[in-house]
Structure formats: structure tokens, C-alpha cells
């Protein structure tokens, strides 16, 4: 089930740590990341709390039942092709009819972006650098 058409080049967490993104229930969160986002679980831990490391094409994020507020966290993913990224998510079953592409400027970089909110409340922004 490897459908890694889109390359994640980099990621920046909204809070502190992309390897410690808060979820209320790890087991109910994981299927969205595997089925829709195309990640695979590569490691799990039970201490100090339940957590999992997920990998997509060599790029990793972590989900954790750490008591944090998922609605205040997530990641910005830099991708090679933002339109292909949305098409891949949609092909995997994302229930969002339109990507609602937007343009954002951070420093001197212009980004074409869209957002996906996971069922666990974490928000992901996919962005492609524009010339």
C-alpha cells in the first residue's frame, strides 16, 4: 500500500516537537495516518505514555497520549507538489471536496498551501514553495 507519490521535504511543528504530537487516543488516531496520509507505524512505546513513530518515505512524525491539546498543535509539511499532495490524500479517502489552496508568505518565501485537520484534532498544513 505504498503510495508515496508526494515527497515530504521538511516539517515544522506548530508547538515544540513533531515527534510528540498530542492525541487523545493513539489507537483511534493511527488509522487516519496510515490510510489517508500514507504513513506507516515503525515504532511504539508504552512509557512514559503511549506513543508511536510514523514514517512516510523516510520522513517521521510521532503521536503521543501526552495530555497535550491536539487542537493547538500539528505540523507544516513542505512538499514537492502541493496539488499532487491533495490528490493523493483524496485518492486515499480524505473526505474534503476542495483543497481551498491559499498563498502565505513566511519571511521571503511564498507558499501555496492547504490544510487538513485529522480526526484527532491535529492540523496539518501542506505547502509548496513558489517562485
TrEMBL record:
InterPro entries: Glyas_Bleomycin-R_OHBP_Dase, Glyas_Fos-R_dOase_dom, VOC_core. It holds the Pfam family Glyoxalase. Residues 15-129 form the VOC domain. Gene3D superfamilies: 2,3-Dihydroxybiphenyl 1,2-Dioxygenase, domain 1 (3.10.180.10). This is VOC family protein.
Amino acid at each position: 500500500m505504498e503510495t508515496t507519490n508526494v515527497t515530504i521535504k521538511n516539517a515544522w511543528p506548530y508547538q515544540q516537537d513533531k515527534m510528540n504530537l498530542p492525541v487523545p487516543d493513539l489507537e483511534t488516531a493511527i488509522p487516519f495516518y496510515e490510510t489517508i496520509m500514507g504513513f506507516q507505524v515503525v515504532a511504539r512505546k508504552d512509557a512514559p505514555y503511549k506513543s508511536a513513530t510514523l514514517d512516510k518515505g523516510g520522513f517521521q512524525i510521532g503521536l503521543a497520549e501526552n495530555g497535550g491539546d491536539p487542537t493547538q498543535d500539528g505540523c507544516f509539511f513542505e512538499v514537492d507538489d502541493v496539488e499532487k499532495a491533495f490528490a493523493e490524500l483524496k485518492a486515499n479517502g480524505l473526505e474534503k471536496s476542495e483543497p481551498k489552496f491559499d498563498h502565505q508568505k513566511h519571511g521571503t518565501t511564498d507558499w501555496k498551501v492547504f490544510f487538513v485537520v485529522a480526526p484527532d484534532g491535529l492540523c496539518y498544513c501542506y505547502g509548496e514553495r513558489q517562485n
